[in-house]
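Hi support team,

I'm filing this because I wasn't sure whether my run with pyridoxal-5'-phosphate finished correctly. The job status page said complete, but I'd like someone to confirm that the output block is well-formed before I use it downstream. Pasting the exact inputs I used:
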Amino acid sequence: METVSFLNLKKINEKYLTEMELAFKDVINSGWYILGKQVEEFEKDFANYCGTKHCISVANGLDALILIVKAFGFGVGDEIIVPANTYIASILAISANGATPVLVEPDINTYNIDPEKIKEKITSKTKAIMVVHLYGQAVEIKKINEIAKEYNLKVIEDSAQAHGAVYAGKRVGNLADASGFSFYPGKNLGALGDGGAVTTNDDDLAYKIKVLRNYGSEIKYKNMYKGFNSRLDELQAAFLKIKLKYLDEDNARRREIATYYRKNISNNTIILPQVKYEEGHVWHLFVIRTENRDKLQKYLQENKVQSLIHYPIAPHKQNAYKEWNSMSLPVTEKIHEQVLSLPISPVMEHSEAERVVELLNSYD
Ligand SMILES: *Cc1c(COP(=O)(O)O)cnc(C)c1O
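And here is everything the job wrote out:
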């Protein structure tokens, strides 16, 4: 029996081979490879898709978040609230600016930041709340925006795992003051290399990020700010423009698999993901929890089903954040001990999903 792969990137991108070959020729023939027509068009398309006024593409998702924090002017002495249960990039973006990340525990049901635990972490130094739509599920942004308004804070979305998710009629990326996206190959909208973007309705912020990503320069050789080199390639922009057209379709297929898993996995040692609003989840990952996670992973592996752990070590337990190692964050720690991600992707066959379900239902 063939292995059920966790994510078959080759199969995902093969679907677009013909269109991508044409785009590739187009870019070569243009003779222009950085900040040209392809980037401009993709930015326009992605802003339209998210429903925002602006999209500024950058080199990767981490840079998108770093540049948002930088452009808002947050740095040394400022505190930014961020979920303790996230991929470390969200937190690194704050540290990279010299600002202090303040960790907040997640809701055990959604794995996203618990809005009820934010207020107690706000001090006179707090400048912003960074939320993460983890595993593809939009956070409860309404409650968070209300808190931000009360305390005059900015809200930054880390949307790297949730391209296309909808919350109360609006897309992720258009739910707060600014949003960072990643187009890393494995994301719901993935390039054939690194890529990222910022979306926002804030004209000043958009302008600043546009300048900052290109050496702090708007007019060549005239430098307004101490900027960076963080640009999306023309070639990646051309590929992303193609794949964006199919994003809703791909997310719908992910949702079908998730629905099938949720309906059919029935094993009382396994906790299934909980969904607040169906359209608010684009299933970047399908994450279950179980007491003896390593045993379950081994069982799946022996039966030729790949699974992964997102994530094995909590950010506050990482060597990179030694200063936090003795901090106690029990909900985050429990999640890191118990989670396991099952295969899910737009190219997964129904027969593969069936096999995963059968295996899980006969596991004890
Ligand atoms: C992938 C990811 C990032 C970083 O994106 P890169 O493009 O790899 O830099 C940031 N935050 C989250 C939640 C992610 O999953």
